[in-house]
Amino acid sequence: MSFRGILSAVILVFSEGLILQGPSSPLVAQLGGVLRLPCSVETPIPLDELEVEWRRADSKALVHLFQEGESRPESQSDAYRDRAHFFTEREIAKGNYSLLLRNVTTDDAGMYSCGVYTNEETGEIAVEIEAIERLVLTGADHAVTANVGEEVILNCSVDSHIPPEEVSWAKVDSDESHMLVLLFQENETYPGDSSYQGRTEFFTSEIPKGNFSLRLKDVRTEDKGEYICKAHSGLLSANTTVILQELGLSSMHILVLVLCGSAFVVALVVSAMILLDIKGKLM
Ligand SMILES: *[C@@H]1O[C@H](CO)[C@@H](O)[C@H](O)[C@H]1NC(C)=O
Ligand SMILES: *[C@@H]1O[C@H](CO)[C@@H](O)[C@H](O)[C@H]1NC(C)=O
Ligand SMILES: *[C@@H]1O[C@H](CO)[C@@H](O)[C@H](O)[C@H]1NC(C)=O
Ligand SMILES: *[C@@H]1O[C@H](CO)[C@@H](O)[C@H](O)[C@H]1NC(C)=O
Ligand SMILES: *[C@@H]1O[C@H](CO)[C@@H](O)[C@H](O)[C@H]1NC(C)=O
Ligand SMILES: *[C@@H]1O[C@H](CO)[C@@H](O)[C@H](O)[C@H]1NC(C)=O
Question: Would you say the pTM of this structure is higher than 0.70?
Answer without folding.
Answer: no
